[in-house]
């Protein structure tokens, strides 16, 4: 019985790629140094999978930034502003598309389906001259083969590539991206021909958009694409991989009737209903790559349950046609549990990171083949039973409080217009008030202080003194820049979710459980294993300290319940909304303590509310109902004069704008600049928004410093569709990843632009 891995984490067990990328970007190392680190990581991954007994090992899942940008490079679809003149795409062009450069902005970045991973959105139009401009897929296949590992090269499928793209600036929004299929398929044919010539026996096309709500025209594009590729693919085994949700009956029919396709990879963790489709009609003689090991969470697989599922499928598909696989790429999990030295043995026994999931996949494949490792299965069953019965998982008081939430929608008593009037009387802010989103640059010195405090190398007094000094520096800088509503810069926090999780019960933490979010950005999601509560205040001391340093309003900074949920590894033994309500009650306690401490502006970030939206429209309403309700729970008890802000970043918000309004926040700051101000189109189309709103005026994920004129131009575009008295001026997101040398001039220009517009507005009266 064979085994397969859809994809594997790229950063390395100790984030080796992250540090190599950042060293290269800072001109501290060469391209050759970066390539060596990458080659060593690839070699290690391939050989690890081969040693574990995996038959179908992927290649070309490694990336210096993201796999969609790799496909853009392969197709030579470089926007003209980057000045690429043909030939093999090098690091300069590649990273300029991802991060921007001194003269041009980066391409749009958005969430990869409903995950916390991001991809660079291709910008396409009728005039793009596609050409085969990156041989990465073939090079990496050859590289693995030279190491003695025969891999399955993985490509983003042609239809998903186009469906994940957007019309370039200046191209009609109604332009059919699928009309470009005849232009990109010749390049796919070139790549396929080179892979065949290099000795590839299999090829994997990732077509995850098949799990979305697709119309007949979109489904027909899959049929047309693979019919066109059939001759070129002849002689290869072709795997079409889907993940993250069920397939509709129509999509399943389209998939299983594709020409020239040998195998279908299906997510049977998040796509449990797909099993019924397989049982009712699976094409004879085809392979099923059964994704029964969860690629998106860190819980150990219930091997007995998975084996039972596989045995039922084996009866349908045939013994020699069933391949055990992960549900999706393991990119979304931490790398290796072996590196976790501080997790206690009980919790550790409940977990499986990427390296352990590889072992689980192979163990299931061997068990199906009659070579069951009884000791491994027994230990797994024991861990499953331990997790179900452990007293640390359940807190009756928390469950009772969450159950009592039913029956109320937890809205503030006064409408937002009246609240804003009351808040303005108290805060006395100018027109177009300026603020930032929360974090300020995390310097090496600051990271050192936090690291040494955690390692007990400095005292708590020394730590508090150092953090207070950093807060004072940030406060003084904001006052010098004349920003209206200040933040304390979050110097005590390495990560916005991890910081809160460390102070809430029901959470566990890793030392090296890093997961890639985009580029070199890694996050370390907390693990929610039990009922959640707040033992004591979490941010009141730091927010009060910061407020004591200034007479200007100081924002209390919290992470909202939906974002904590969506950016954690969440327990899978109860519905997600139940866990979210528990977190909401904990944050509610914190909000009310901040208010009592004299904090008049409190920001409750819901950066990840949109990313948790189910991929199926039929499931949207239920998710949005409990997600929005969870946010309202956090602040339903504050006074009218306390201003509640929230923040959302990189996602498509237009389809949930009415739910955003229903959150009933006083002010929302929201990503806008990197997505070509897509957000503003909602207001152009007539959506009325009465609360305060701050669409981001510049992209903080690029080192580029926007000019005062450029920011003023963005603000003017906002004023064309939004009332002057509700508009705020702020960056897209927090400033943690930037350097002070970039932050100071950018914020200075932002404030100057706001003042310029205030003057113009005043003179126009």
Automatic annotation (TrEMBL):
Gene3D superfamilies: 3.20.20.210. InterPro entries: Cbl-indep_Met_Synth_N, Cobalamin-indep_Met_synthase, Met_Synth_C/arc, UROD/MetE-like_sf. Zn(2+) 2 binds at residues 658, 662. It comes from the Eukaryota. The keyword Transferase applies. One of its GO terms (biological process) is methylation. Keywords: Amino-acid biosynthesis, Metal-binding, Methionine biosynthesis, Methyltransferase, Transferase, Zinc. Binds 2 Zn(2+) ions per subunit. The active site is at residue 701. GO terms for molecular function: 5-methyltetrahydropteroyltriglutamate-homocysteine S-methyltransferase activity; methionine synthase activity; zinc ion binding. Pathway: Amino-acid biosynthesis; L-methionine biosynthesis via de novo pathway; L-methionine from L-homocysteine (MetE route): step 1/1. Residues 3-316 form the Cobalamin-independent methionine synthase MetE N-terminal domain. The keyword Flavoprotein does not apply. Zn(2+) 1 binds at residues 647, 649, 671, 733. 5-methyltetrahydropteroyltri-L-glutamate binds at residues 18, 116, 521-522, 567. It is an enzyme of class 2 (transferase). L-methionine binds at residues 437-439, 490, 605. Its EC number is 2.1.1.14. It catalyses: 5-methyltetrahydropteroyltri-L-glutamate + L-homocysteine = tetrahydropteroyltri-L-glutamate + L-methionine. SUPFAM superfamilies: UROD/MetE-like. Belongs to the vitamin-B12 independent methionine synthase family. Catalyzes the transfer of a methyl group from 5-methyltetrahydrofolate to homocysteine resulting in methionine formation. NCBIfam families: met_syn_B12ind (TIGR01371), PRK05222.1 (NF003556). This is 5-methyltetrahydropteroyltriglutamate--homocysteine S-methyltransferase. It comes from Gossypium armourianum. The lineage of its organism: Eukaryota, Viridiplantae, Streptophyta, Embryophyta, Tracheophyta.
